[in-house]
Amino acid sequence: MRLLSLSTYPLSHPLHGxxxxxxxxxxxxxxxxxxxxxxxxxxxxxxxxxxxxxxxTALPGDLRAALVRQGLREDLHLHRVLSDDLAAMxxxxxxxxxxxxxxxxLEHPWLFPVYERLAAxxxxxxxxxxxxxxxxxxxxxxxxxxxxxxxxLERRLSACADMIVAVSEGDAARLRAxxxxxxxxxxxxxxxxxxxxxxxxxxxxxxxxPYVMVAGSAHPPNAQGFRDSFGxxxxxxxxxxxxxxxxxxxxxxxxxxxxxxxxxxxxxxxRHMGVVGDGVLANLLHHARGICxxxxxxxxxxxxxxxxxxxxxxxxxxxxxxxxxxxARTLGGVRIADSxxxxxxxxxxxxxxxxxxxxxxxxxARFTWPATLAGLTGAYRGMRRSAPAKAPA
Amino acid sequence: MILFDVTTSYTFxxxxxxxxxxxxxEAIRAFRDACGEGVTxxxxxxxxxxxxxxxxxxIDALIADRKWSVPAVDRAGAARNRLRSLARQVRFLAAVPRxxxxxxxxxxxxxxxxxxxxxxxxxxxxxxxxxxxRRVLGWLCRLWPxxxxxxxxxxxxxxxxxxxxxxxxxxxxxxxxxxxxFARVAHYVSAxxxxxxxxxxxxxxxxxxxxxxxxxxxxxLVPVLWxxxxxxxxxxxxxxxxxxVLWGVDQxxxxxxxxxxxxxxxxxxxxxxxxxxxxxxxxxxxxxxETGPAxxxxxxxxxxxxxxxxxxxxxxxxxxxxxxxxDFAYRLWRELNRRRPGAVPPLVWAGQPGWSIGPLLxxxxxxxxxPHGAIRILSDVSDAELATLYRACRFTIYPSHYEGWGLPxxxxxxxxxxxxxxxxxxxxxxxxxxxxxxxxxDGEGWIARVVALLDDDTAYRAACARARGVExxxxxDFRTALIADFRRFPDRRMGAVA
Lengths: 393, 498
Fold this sequence. Notes:
Chain A is of the alpha/beta class. Chain A is 41% helix and 15% strand. Chain A is built from 18 helices and 14 strands.
């Protein structure tokens, strides 16, 4: 079976959670015997590290600026700027036609309108089975003025999809309801996970001081959670210790005037690493005294939680970080803090407690991708064995 | 050994005794009187990162004079002729490589010795000699830009010599061999501006390494809670310094219950290690300005110099800075003058000019709606002049947004003068029920009370009686309480820190 994945970000260098999940899903499909191709449609300036093939379907920055000028979103309203005379659209159509997919998997609902336009002129695409890979219930996360439009899009896609992939039972229930009376449509729950650490142990610590770590992408709720949990004064980090922040969230934090207050103190205590590669991230995780999950909002389930659990390091988290991981709350070395004050108190404890989390690899194996995507792998296999394509509409 | 840090008094020895210096002076006096030879007074030297002892006679002189007088390095007078001036410059240039050879040692101590030797050599040049040499060095700097940092350093030393800031005893005072060995220290006490340099790191390190107990007097949390109106450097250095202090402090004194509550709240809110509440004690400041009774003719002269009449003005004391809310006082007086033209006494602002106040002072100076002289600004007021102003004013106002304590309030009451103050928590605490506390959002309330104290003799006499009824705290009480609390510490040290 040839599986075409359409996403709004490239997957050649998966960094943020959405990329990592989409990449893991494709690997699962490949493992199930599918021939897979991902075509990203994205704004070039947002992902400068996309590879050459991916860059063919990258969009120029002035289109993004046009959306921003109109107060529109670059995910929900992306399809509005994708006119057929764009070079990227030409490449997209050509690649889809050449690949002749048996199934199309949409990561998020954003490209559904684009899929519909392509399907109208590409019979192979119209015959392909449609898989909706939902990362969240998006309508719950976007600002209220977009709620109706997003929910309508999610409902429409759920009603059309031949298979739905959800990250949690809660999301699955809502998506199943939106699928309507099509009870035979499989809704697969594939929780987020991570890859178990492999390869040689990381070398000497990049950060020489004892430190605790926060990792997060440039997703606004990450910055909000950081602010809500740590506050403006990182009093829970001792002199000589550090709070290391890795990922795109650093850019959000540095751009926020609230983090400019107490700058000298924050500069002395907080080390912003920016976006780091897998090797650096592994090194930082390996040498950290603990991992903090200051998640207070957002949706879906959190990849960082799985990574923190699998790292076997002590974890201090806000309750929202364990959404979808409820049964992991009682694992050794996990501390859930209900209030910012309790969170800071627990972070302080990371510097005096043991640097290991009192969990075993067996206990956390269920949070790795092979385990979380086991059901999905089976579904891909089932789809491969069944009829290759649906009848044309 | 008890180490008492007097770095603030030493560093700011050229300043008038503002609140922070006054508090440190009184704390020095308390420990000198109570502990005698048992306390060693020390100055922190930031370049070397060490503390150095101060001779007892210097401390005694500081206590007696309420000011630290340190002889400054003398610089050479003008050379008799250009040839001699040139000879001095050549001698100086020849000395530089010799200094580098003599003090080769790396590290802070070596650097300090080189700097001292360079300062001594530079003092042998007159200002004219240095100016001539500087022109040549400036040309050389254009050819070799790498010289620029050295030239900047020379300029800085020259400036400090020129304004008399270089301590003539510095070479002996801060010789590396005199550095205090913390292994012998049981207690380190700080009652000054611990955030001015990184002395708090040295103290923290000493506690970690040698286990000595650290005691800090903290006046307020203004740079944390009201950082937007704090002096620009302090609002960055103070929170960082406080961070280190709170991670390694054994006993804290605050100057009010408000500051104590603020501190404990800051600790709890931001995740700092808990300090047992009985380790944080308010120790109230005195308000007796010990200047002795002023001669009537002196007092009259002071008032005449500022064109003020006995009982014919209202006083507001405090550094001119946004937190003190001079802006509100200005608008209040403007409105009073609009409503009662010709019937409003002058408002006197007594205090040093501070930061971020320039635009307001320009407004006041340029306001055609404010009668000339309606607001008088007196900076650089001595203790004796201040006491005279308190005695001669009709009443005082203090609309400050926030304070650690509120010394002008208690000083006003101690002089038997009513005070109208804002409802900031520490001011209510300082007012002891004898003040009128009106929120600064209530402009009409302020106007009504000011008018009452100006026009209604019955109300004024009642307010004066309330003020006189307050028993003012004395600095002696502050010293006694400080030492008593310090002495309680060793008994409860074990197991008291959470």
